[in-house]
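Sample entry follows:

:::
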Amino acid sequence: MVDEEVVSERIRQIAATLEGRAGELTGTLVQLYATDLPQLVNDDERMVSLLSASVYQNIETALQIFRHGIDPATVEPPAAAMEYARRLAQRGTPVFDLIRAYDLGQAAMLDFGFEECTRLVDDAALLGAMMRRLLRVAYEFITRVVRQLVGVYQDERDRWLLNRSAARAAKVADLLDGNGGPPDVDAAEAVIGYRLRGTHVGMIVWHASEAFVDDALSLLESVAGAVFERVRGQGRPLFVPRDEASAWVWLPLAPGTSVGREQLDAALAEAAAGVRVTVGDPGTGVDGFRDTHQQARRVHALALAAGEHCDRVLTFREVGTVALMTSDLNAARLWVASTLGPLAADEENCGRLRETLRVFLATGASYTAAAAELTMHKNSVQYRVRKAQELLPRGLAEGRLDIELALALCRRLGAAVLSPG
């Protein structure tokens, strides 16, 4: 039976020996990280210096535990180790790299300790007892330190992301506001992490479901990423959350490209049913950054007014005229009523007549073309067009453009601009 006090005394001797080599051991571990975790040893001298200080203080703390029999459960991580964990969090270094560094460091220090044990101790039983003690205490120490540092890392990561998101949102708001003269483009790009000098298209993405959706923002960001992937954009998209279920998005595009309807429909086909998207026209530079966003917002207002009647995807190119007319929804409703008269009634029969008249006018007032698009008999189209015209306050020849616009509003907004039946 090995005397535990003898084990403790021999371990104290070994810890004292290694304490005199703390600087050398620190250099060895930093070199180990340079080989196995090169992302921790980059060209930033401040980070390398902080890493060295963290390693040195951890070695000193561990050796003090062995020299003085300190309970590892009572030990706090060294100051340099906590600061290094915070810096890694700020830089977005994966927390796994931090954990891996401690695993490598623990294995290396145990190797140093075992080497000293075998050099100084001949008794196999005593040697085994010492190694078991070293393994147990080292494990308890590293486990406690890593658990605390992961907490420090996560807290700092959350705080950093929150602050960065707030700074990014504030800078985006400044760019959209446009007051205060021309922006410092370089500084703005650094804050928002997005290039402003190229071509972009603005989008509004949101989840229309009234029910709570877990992590809706991640869902919306994945939809924006799916669109970006399909248009083969250049650079990185800008995703700015507005609340828990909506966000503003800018996609950087190659010159001369745009976001096509097929690409949008394909991305939405793979998304949850509640996701909606509105899209502006491509714009260039800071002015284009503002313009495409404002267009997407106008279409977004149109989509909200339409409610469930709205398509999942609306683009300014398709509905821009209608969107511009709905900034005052009450005025739009009154205008539709005065333009279409009884045809604006929120009734099923009037709805059929409006759609037939809309398609008839959109196909160049061709009964044949309208019948083909509506998959109806030509005589049925003629009948419905005649009945629709009978309900209009004035003939098509007098106000065809207004009538077409009013029909487009009815199609897009439905009950929001229709008169009570």
Q: What stands out?
A: Residues 93 and 111 are 28 Å apart (CA to CA). The chain has a mean pLDDT of 88. The longest strand covers residues 199-207. The radius of gyration is 34 Å.
